[in-house]
Amino acid sequence: MSQEPPHYRVSRIAKELEASGRDVIHMEIGDPELDTDPRIVDAMCRAAREGHTHYAPTRGVKPLLERLVGYMERFIKPGFDLSIDNIVVTPGSKVAIYTALRLLRPRKIFVVEPMWGLYHSFASEMGIEIVHIPTRMEDGWELRTEINGVEKGDVIAVVNPNNPTGTILSRESISNILETAREADAYILADEVYFDLIYRGSMTSFLSMDYDRVLAFYTFSKNFVMSGFRVGWVVSPSKDLANNFLNRLRLIVGGPPPFSQYGAAEALTLMDVLEKNRRFYMETLQYSVERLREMGFRFVEPSAGMYIFAEPPVEEMNGVEFTYRLLEEEAVAVAPGTGFGDYPGYVRFTTSLRMERLEEAFNRIERFLERR
Amino acid sequence: MSQEPPHYRVSRIAKELEASGRDVIHMEIGDPELDTDPRIVDAMCRAAREGHTHYAPTRGVKPLLERLVGYMERFIKPGFDLSIDNIVVTPGSKVAIYTALRLLRPRKIFVVEPMWGLYHSFASEMGIEIVHIPTRMEDGWELRTEINGVEKGDVIAVVNPNNPTGTILSRESISNILETAREADAYILADEVYFDLIYRGSMTSFLSMDYDRVLAFYTFSKNFVMSGFRVGWVVSPSKDLANNFLNRLRLIVGGPPPFSQYGAAEALTLMDVLEKNRRFYMETLQYSVERLREMGFRFVEPSAGMYIFAEPPVEEMNGVEFTYRLLEEEAVAVAPGTGFGDYPGYVRFTTSLRMERLEEAFNRIERFLERR
After folding, report:
1. What is the ipTM of this complex?
2. Banded model confidence at residue B3, pLDDT cuts 50, 70, 90
3. B259 vs A94: CB contact, 8 Å cut-off?
4. How far is the alpha carbon of B274 from chain A, nearest alpha carbon, in Å?
5. How far apart are CA B56 and CA B60, in angstroms?
6. What is the pLDDT of residue A3?
7. Which one is the CATH code of A54-269: 3.40.1030.10, 3.40.630.30, 3.40.640.10, 3.30.70.260?
8. Which of A252, A262, A350 best tests the B interface by mutation, with the highest count of B CBs <10 A?
């Protein structure tokens, strides 16, 4: 049975503290303190009342698939005829990535790190070897090393914009990764979940390049604040690969509830909601950058997302010790860097909290540091 | 890549016929032609409006878990202290069974057949050996053979009440299976999804026996007509086994949407809905029994569920040929017996169609047979 990932361990201790009456501030989970827009909920309820409470086609309901085609066109390489056949709606990104790995059965997964811990857990669950491809803060989390030893059928896993660092890989890095994959005839699993939450610069999607063996993962959880709806989607430039993915997804789990999907279809028509959410993520991130900087944390300022990956300004403890002491002493939960690769010196802060809570969190952290 | 199961193949051909304008009657899928009760939909919408649109605890939301404890108490062996810790809410039974197999990693799965094709597909996906334990119509689908060769950690898979036959295993058969498992220290995966749809006699749940290594699977899909909600649940007499299952489920997929779960919690308070649905299932099944009997189909009259597993009264073709010719000539889709084990002579009829459609379906089948 698999080991408890550090991420889960922190959540568990936090819950125990709460059970004993402590007011824990959660900066360890990737769920924003925002409400889902009522128009999205209304659309879901309308669909359920109209009878969309039965099994739906596993690929997804038509209105959602059709809108996703339009939504993703900006990413797809020019001249490519993107259609519904390139897309599969998924019940979240986690099981989508799991399904992709069950389908592809790589010999090795090359993980560009830091990377949220999912691939590490999946690789251990499936008995697949992980090859760590670390990037460093000193390089602005840009990929400076070569990826060696990739063979046919292997997987290169990339999260861009990055979770936990919030940085965006340069077009050059994306090209290099792609060329490595192409030479080896390997697959790229591209977690591009934060594509809608970019505040500076722009990203290069793996879908915009000329390579078929790509599965790119997206979700409505963060951009539209719909984590509970369990709706994500996968895009592949290859209709065959998308279709094989669909068949495997159908075998393992099937799709999300049809009414959830109608909610998601509505969301894609509400660009004001996306804009409002983006502003919230950006402002809370900006405020967090300032507070952490004042306290002497070392990090690269994120260009995207809802996280800051930072080295605490304390000599006597590493990120793991910092995490558990901060949790115990000040009831602020963060995610230790070891959950994202070999980064014992780091912690990840989720910054998408309501402003009063965010302020309180950083006040507690300040107090914690002043006691050292 | 896995082979297309016969079940999916029929659905695909049926869809192609529909695309060409044919009016296909679907007797191959397990989804009733009933509406979800509006009070269930309302409860779901209320929960979503109240903010239950974020991540929920993977085990399930509290009100649902608490009501499930009460709902399942009738099944649990006398004196056993059933609690929330014995239960895990799942996003459907399919992924729940998949997750159980990933957790247990048996050397062999002993499948009491006929059995819907899921275990066969999963075993092939995971490279696990299947041992077929056939039962025969002549024995009333009762288990007459011994299950030999079971070793520690293996899985015995049983669906009771049975899909596809609608028969219920005797208490003696359940005891025998359980003793075989106990002697070998093996696991029992008990699909008891049709527990709420029994019309004659009663069933013995594996939860009512004195054995810990049991995972029993249930869902709201059929009894409460909520297949699109994607809510099921697992019960184990062992809190440890339930907990290991929970951790594996969290790793692979997580739980269903929280608002779906609130809908399910409401359903458990609506026994009039269950009664109404049961009556529908029973009446459509009864009507189907009469029609199929008149035409000379051979089968054991079901005591539960929504299916009839029958031998067509035709000499010149087996169940598979019958399936595809009936689909082509009369646009009635059924499931060939080969999807449930080595039963080439049989087909499965789903009988939970609206009465007019059911009548039309059997008229078409009559016409089909008259042409032979």
Report:
1. 0.95
2. low
3. no
4. 16
5. 7
6. 57
7. 3.40.640.10
8. A252
